[in-house]
Design goal:
The complex is a heterodimer of chains A (about 300) and B (about 500). With about 300 residues, chain A is mainly alpha-helical. Chain A is about 75% helix and about 0% strand. Chain A has a single domain, classed as ABC transporter involved in vitamin B12 uptake, BtuC (Orthogonal Bundle), CATH 1.10.3470. Chain A has 13 helices and no strands. With about 500 residues, chain B is of the alpha/beta class. In chain B, the strands form five sheets. In chain B, strands 13, 16, 19, 20, 21, 22 and 23 form a seven-stranded mixed β-sheet that branches. Chain B has a six-stranded mixed β-sheet with strand order 6-7-8-3-9-10, sandwiched between helices. In chain B, strands 2-1-4-5 form a four-stranded antiparallel β-sheet, with helices on one face. The chains are: A mainly alpha (about 300), B alpha/beta (about 500). Chains A and B meet through helix 7, helix 8 and helix 13 of A and helix 2 and helix 3 of B.
């Protein structure tokens, strides 16, 4: 039983950075922008969060630093693609490479240091309950925040006028512009939100999960977050589900021997990507439904001719 | 008596707007009265869109002033204009396909209106004006006519004082046009003014109280359309004597294109199955296919031009030769040319230059690519010839196709195909969005082509166009095609009835 609880706890820790990064990217893509720089924003968030925490000793400062750093990198992307109309795919890829390099540079002096333990929720009585105690009442604050964030995004996108405008801009930016919505301003806002979320996801890795700074420590999680958005068919709750599935596979991989699974770890490591491809095939099988899922103007450059 | 300055709803004084290289509006002044249906007429590029965008707050004038209800009016953005009671129905619908009717309407009204029971109000307003709508349907599932209703209802919900309509009838059946006109007249009687942009002169004569005519960004005339003829209006608009396209009976030869009982299940979810379509077109003949959009025109076009090859080689024959299984290139090689309806993305690649777009279509017939190398000099010559002969307004031949206005690109596409001297020419909506002068020129070119012995098929929703240039007209409804009847035996009403879905019955009788 302890093994199971430990595995589930591990899954939560593994999934939370993915939840943050993918929910941010989901909002960005809903507004019609494809930012492939998630990996870069995450790693910058990771080093900023780690450095902030080590330098000040305050987790709050570290987390804030990560959010600001992630958003700042996203702002760079926004200026390049929304104001200067650079190609989004190329800029996103460049952003990832830039982020990895810059983070490594900043992180030189932090290698090998470790952050203090991140506090977890402890409600006497509740947290001591068997099984559900540690699982439901014993998490760190960021885990609860990640759930709240998904719920908030889901609510804003489907129930509010702001969400409707974001979806409309992602669907047809020319029409949105003709009606009078500031397409570029909205996209700046969603990009900043996406960057902040990716930064937070990165900080979770370096402050809570490891908690150390290691070069390239995001190890492709930014790409998984991108894949998750597609996997989720651009629906917030499904991206949460996806993040936990992917997190689960990562953890089961680690425990596979203890669980007596006779599967090559490489095959398990492949699974998330395989699942994404299968989901992509499934969602594009029905053309009418595919149209409803993917924002029609995803990745297209908007230029107001008038 | 109202105060003198309050006698008009909207007054424009000396509006001027300059874009780099073009004076789009030059000292434009006119007035729109209360409850007046005011036509704004002009060729492509005459400055109608720019003017309307200034009134709707999308653009700001360089100089000049606007007065609404006698008060200075300078909208900084569309929501300002809407707050002042100005609504707009766009030419290219500003709708979002993956959103519902209600969500689309919500997006287009100011926030305070979106509160409360919007759904109920949509139903009330649409019922009151006879424009039935289901608020929960997805826009992508609606017909073009229904989509326009969404735009109109969106306007009406805001209790507008002025509605701007940009070419609203180009996509409607004659019956739908009647419904629209009844709605507009009712609105006008209730005191709402309408600024009506169109190039369909007969409609303007039937509907509008006053017309302001723009040419080259300037007001050239203001008149009462009912007292003018369509010809005199067109002449004011283009500033030249218009030679109306007139169909001379050319000598009809043998059958060139023969469609023999074509049935084709649709490949798309919301597509139309083609059912037992038969048609023949003879050399020197122009045959028209009328019908409401979305009744199988796209599918038929795809089958005829070879984008969708047929299982049975014999179903389609060109000069007696079966071509059913051939793709578009092979068909072009045998002398067919095509101009599909969708200009950007189908008839032309939006991000490629005009020259490249010329190569894509004329490569085979004009031999523009020899042993794998493109002959850009010849391609450029061909493009230049098209531009000159069809008076296409361009910045440069190396500019992307998408940079042209819709009407100009249409002229380029038609010219590109016609100059390839096809023996069979198939065009869908050949003059969509093109002004009267240019439309006459395109019609003239099509008729000249027929005179030279080509067999021509025109698929169009513009009945006036079909009646003017065609020898015979068939109607497509729900994937079935009626027998093509000589134009002399047809009336617009009859065609309209067939378009309304009763084609099945008349096909059975034929």
């Amino acid at each position: 039983m302890d093994l199971i609880v430990n595995i589930v706890l591990g899954i939560i820790v593994a999934a939370t950075p993915l939840v943050f990064a993918s929910i941010g990217e989901l909002v960005v893509e809903k507004s019609g922008v494809l930012n492939l720089g998630v990996e870069g924003m995450m790693i910058i968030g990771a080093i900023a969060g780690f450095a902030g925490t080590i330098e000040t000793g305050s987790f709050m400062v570290g987390i804030l630093a990560a959010i600001i750093a992630g958003a700042a990198v996203a702002l760079l992307f926004a200026v390049l693609t929304q104001t200067l109309l650079a190609n989004q795919v190329a800029t996103g890829l460049a952003l990832t490479l830039f982020g990895l390099g810059l983070a490594a540079l900043i992180g030189q002096s932090y290698s090998g240091k470790s952050a203090p333990d991140f506090p977890k929720l402890n409600i006497p009585g509740l947290t001591d309950l068997p099984i559900i105690g540690p699982l439901i009442f014993g998490q760190d604050g960021l885990v609860y925040l990640s759930f709240a964030l998904v719920a908030g995004v889901a609510w804003v996108l489907t129930r509010t006028r702001t969400g409707l405008i974001i979806r409309a801009i992602g669907e047809n930016h020319d029409a949105a512009h003709a009606i009078g919505y500031p397409v570029v301003a909205y996209r700046y806002a969603t990009l900043l939100f996406g960057g902040a979320c990716a930064g937070l996801g990165g900080a979770y890795l370096s402050i809570v999960q490891t908690p150390l700074w290691v070069e390239n420590m995001t190890a492709g999680r930014g790409w998984i977050a991108l894949a998750l958005v597609v996997f989720a068919a651009w629906r917030p709750w499904r991206s949460l589900l996806g993040a936990y599935l992917f997190g689960g596979i990562t953890i089961i991989q680690l425990h596979s021997q203890a669980l007596g699974l006779q599967v090559e770890p490489q095959i398990l490591a492949m699974l998330p990507y395989l699942a994404t491809i299968i989901v992509l095939v499934l969602i594009s099988y029905d053309k009418a439904k595919a149209r409803l899922n993917a924002p029609a103007n995803l990745g297209k450059t908007f230029f107001a001719s008038t | 008596m109202t105060k003198p300055d309050d006698a008009y709803l909207l007054e424009l004084e000396g509006l001027t707007k300059t874009f780099p290289g073009v004076k789009a509006n030059d000292d434009v002044s006119f007035r729109v009265g209360h409850g007046e249906i005011h036509a704004l007429l002009g060729e492509n590029g005459a400055g109608k869109s720019t003017l309307v965008k200034m009134i709707y707050g999308v653009l700001r004038p360089d100089s000049g002033a606007m007065h609404l209800h006698g008060e200075t009016f300078a909208p900084a953005r569309p929501s300002d204009a809407r707050a002042h009671g100005i609504g707009m129905v766009f030419q290219h619908f500003s709708l979002f396909e993956a959103l519902t009717v209600k969500e689309n309407i919500e997006l287009g009204v100011n926030p305070e209106l979106a509160k409360g029971d919007l759904r109920q109000r949509i139903i009330e307003v649409s019922d009151y004006y006879g424009l039935k709508l289901d608020p929960d349907r997805m826009i992508g599932d609606l017909s073009v006519g229904q989509r326009q209703r969404v735009e109109i209802v969106r306007c009406l919900l805001q209790n507008p004082r002025l509605i701007i309509m940009d070419e609203p009838t180009s996509v409607l059946t004659p019956q739908e046009v009647d419904v629209l006109f009844a709605t507009l007249r009712r609105l006008a009687e209730e005191g709402c003014s309408i600024l009506y942009i169109s190039h369909k002169l007969e409609e303007i004569r039937a509907l509008c109280h006053t017309a302001t005519i723009l040419r080259g960004g300037k007001v050239v005339a203001t008149c009462t359309p009912a007292e003018e003829t369509a010809k005199s209006l067109a002449e004011m608009m283009i500033g030249a004597i218009l030679m109306p396209a007139r169909r001379e009976s050319s000598s009809i030869g043998d059958v060139r294109l023969w469609v023999n009982r074509l049935s084709l299940p649709s490949q798309q979810q919301f597509g139309i199955d083609l059912k037992d379509i038969s048609l023949d077109i003879k050399a020197g003949e122009i045959v028209g296919i009328a019908g409401v959009a979305g009744n199988g025109q796209e599918e038929l076009m795809a089958a005829l031009i070879g984008e969708h090859t047929l299982g049975d080689h014999e179903t389609l024959q060109l000069d007696g030769k079966p071509i059913g299984r051939m793709g578009p290139d092979e068909r072009r090689g045998l002398g067919m040319c095509f101009a599909p309806e969708e200009r950007l993305g189908h008839a032309a690649v939006p991000n490629m230059s005009l020259i490249e777009n010329a190569v894509l279509s004329a490569r085979i017939r004009k031999n523009l690519a020899r042993s794998g190398f493109i002959n850009f000099r010849e391609a450029e010559n061909l493009s230049r010839e098209v531009v000159e002969e069809f008076k296409v307004k361009i910045v440069g031949l190396d500019h992307a196709a998408r940079s042209l206005s819709g009407g100009n690109l249409q002229k380029f596409i038609m010219g590109r195909e016609i100059l390839q001297a096809p023996t069979v020419f198939i065009a869908s909506q050949p003059t969509w969005g093109v002004d009267a002068g240019a439309a006459a020129a395109i019609h003239q070119a099509i008729m000249q082509l027929a005179k030279e012995g080509a067999a021509i098929l025109i698929i169009s929703q513009d009945l006036d166009e079909l009646m003017t240039i065609c020898d015979r007209i068939a109607v497509i409804a729900d994937g079935r095609l009626t027998e093509a009847e000589p134009v002399a035996n047809l009336t617009i009403e009859q065609i309209g009835v067939n378009m309304g879905g009763q084609a099945e019955r008349s096909a059975a009788h034929a």
